Amino acid sequence: MSEAGWEGVEVYREVLYSKLAVGGLVALLALCLGVFLFSNHADLRIRIAGQITFLLIATIALWIGLWLGVHMGYGAWQNLPDPGDKAYADGAALTGSFMFGWIPAGLVCSAVWGLLLHGKKLFGRKPELAA
Q1: Which of helix, strand or coil describes residue 112?
Q2: Cβ proximity of 65 and 24 under 8 Å
Q3: How far apart (Å, rounded) are the C-alpha atoms in residues 101 and 95?
Q4: Dihedral angle, C-alpha 111, 113, 119, 124, nearest 10 °
Q5: How far is CA 102 from CA 22, 24, 62, 88, 115, in A?
């Protein structure tokens, strides 16, 4: 980056993206388990409770990935020999990701959950017999 104070921000982004990717993979696994294990259950209450449980697990996993990425990213950035002024400028990103990170995580997980359900209904049909 050419602006003063942003030296070493690449380290922050690298750590953020790696932790966010791990949280995203765990969230996707939880959503797939919820959709493919519980969407055909005979009891409606178990079907809804199972899917919502896995949706909450996925949201928490993505939220933890976001928070750990921000927290550990700032830590890695601040441990550089000359991190720049922006590494210590504001703690709002860390506090905001911890307190409100569940909102974007919940929105993303809900959208992926809906897409998985829709895709399962579209592509999970049994082949029709030719007349």
Answers
A1: helix
A2: yes
A3: 9
A4: -170
A5: 16, 13, 8, 24, 20
- Tell me the C-alpha distance between 81 and 116, whole Å: 45
List the domain boundaries for the chain: 9-101
Query: What does the DSSP assignment read for 60-111?
Result: HHHHHHHHHHHHHHHHHHHTSSS--GGGGT-SHHHHHHHHHTHHHHHHHHHH
Alpha-carbon span 2 to 11, nearest angstrom: 16
Tokens, residue 87: 């590494």
Report in angstroms the alpha-carbon separations of 60 from 13, 65, 67, 91: 21, 8, 10, 22
33-91 pLDDT, tens digit each: 999 998 788 888 998 999 999 999 999 999 999 999 988 988 888 888 887 777 776 67
What's the pTM?
Answer: 0.83
